[in-house]
């Protein structure tokens, strides 16, 4: 029994050393993860992050298996299941969110990123690797340390102190005795952090807070990578403008400006997605090529060109170079790496300095790793990190470095959202259209909508004229002729005259019905009497497919707005039934924040293209008169969702005539 006890406890000592090795491997994995998250590897974050995160899961999984084998403690796998490979759409492309891709690489990569970074277990693994360096390493190495230290003390001090041998043996015996207990404690410590968690309202709030701040840090790194890309583009732009005189400037300036516009436009798009503030495009519209003159030459400003190609090229060059928004883009491109980069680097620098320059060296010194062994793991600048406190001894350095580093890293996490908002404001300051540009865009928009409104009015008048001429007018002429025949037959053939009167009455009733339909097409009475919500409900009742209408309008709108929205929704419902072959349609009509929003959704075959037909273009022209916008989402196979948005105000409280 004694030999079994000794063997079991000695095996526990060896197991403790193995657990200390796992703790060291976890520390190295944690440093590798931080290296990917550093500002210097912003571009590598996108492509290199999934691999170390996926490889880093082997260390926690090893700790879970050892906890089960050596302590009998089962720790379930907390990770989400691996995503399935992307499947092609009917047209052969691959869908990710609201975009289609010809290759499955990017959808698969995005799904893998979401699988790794969207899993809370990933961040709990990182927390365990950071803390297990001290906790798990001490629990694992303590028994072996007591054994080696006790035996070494007994061997080296036996001739100096009479009590050295018994004290050393007692220390070694204590290390052997507590080894199984510490291995079991290590298993429970591992289960505490690496087992699946049970969600509670408090834990969900904590996860949401951590998730928001981690997302902010990822966005900061992404913006920093774009700033580095902007540096290269800024150097190219300056070289083209300064050195590319003459022919070189003519050839290279337009594509350089278009690259700058692309990057600035992408930043406006990110600004709208991340801050909710839509930044309009400030550029002037590209002018159309003028028609050739009678002599066959093309006139652009005061220059004449023999071919349309050169005329279009020079017109494009002047359009790009003379737009004030172009030079504001160039100013942003040159200054963003300095101003925007400084804003982005502040929180990231605090996190880097706190974790890498203070916390990690402090932890390594506490566990006994000397400076020479640390030098190949990382390097610190003169006067920074552990070298700044080196004069106070390793214990003082570790004691000050760890809490100071954690505090600086936490400060960087806390100020990151503020810095991101500040960067958004800086970007909007230079990339948003100026007031003068907004007025110019407004005048252009009003000119286009006025032309569309005039054309739509002319088309509507021609339709009314055609309907009156071919319908009600023809029937009224027939009624007049019939009454003339009745006058002649009144005395000669009363029976025939009576039959003609019956026919005239029927014809007049048909003419009256056609006139009512015509008036209803111009402005439905139900719209004037009961408002937009009830008018759309009346439309839904006449459709041959089930239609669900949800209306939240706290009041009446102006008559032109109601009319435009009514006929736009009517056109969309007609398209859903006639072209999409839908079996179910929903209409959601709401008023919020000074805007009327209507969303018409159907489960039809999809594939609606605003550029392919006149229906959706007509809806856009009708709403464009009132600064309305139309957004279409219609992937092949459906469903189709068309959103209408009109800026307006409520003109009167909601009323209804029963």
Per-chain topology:
Elements: H1 2-37, H2 42-48, H3 50-56, H4 58-71, E1 94-96, E2 99-101, H5 105-117, H6 120-132, H7 135-156, H8 164-194, H9 201-243, H10 247-275, E3 298-300, E4 303-305, H11 308-321, H12 324-335, H13 339-366, H14 371-374, H15 394-431, H16 435-492, H17 494-522, H18 525-530, H19 532-541, E5 547-552, E6 555-557, H20 559-578, E7 585-592, E8 595-602, H21 614-624, E9 629-633, E10 640-647, E11 650-653
Parallel strand pairs: 5-7
Antiparallel strand pairs: 1-2, 3-4, 6-11, 7-8, 8-10, 9-10
Helix pairs in contact: 1-4, 1-6, 1-7, 1-8, 2-9, 4-8, 7-8, 9-10, 9-13, 9-15, 10-11, 10-12, 10-15, 13-15, 16-17, 16-21, 19-20, 20-21
Explain this structure.
- By secondary structure, the chain is of the alpha+beta class.
- It has 21 helices and eleven strands.
- It has helices spanning 2-37, 42-48, 50-56, 58-71, 105-117, 120-132, 135-156, 164-194, 201-243, 247-275, 308-321, 324-335, 339-366, 371-374, 394-431, 435-492, 494-522, 525-530, 532-541, 559-578, 614-624, and strands at residues 94-96, 99-101, 298-300, 303-305, 547-552, 555-557, 585-592, 595-602, 629-633, 640-647, 650-653.
- The strands form four sheets. The chain has a five-stranded mixed sheet with strand order 5-7-8-10-9, covered by helices on one side. A two-stranded antiparallel sheet has the order 1-2. A two-stranded antiparallel ribbon has the order 3-4.
- Strand 1 (94-96) and strand 2 (99-101) form a beta hairpin.
- Helix 1 (2-37) packs across helix 8 (164-194), helix 9 (201-243) packs across helix 13 (339-366) and helix 16 packs antiparallel against helix 17 (494-522).
- Mean pLDDT is 75; it is low at 39-45, 379-398 and 653-658.
- It holds the Pfam family Sensor.
- Residues 560-650 form the Histidine kinase/HSP90-like ATPase domain.
- The chain crosses the membrane at residues 20-49, 134-155, 161-185, 220-253, 338-356, 396-420.
- This is histidine kinase.
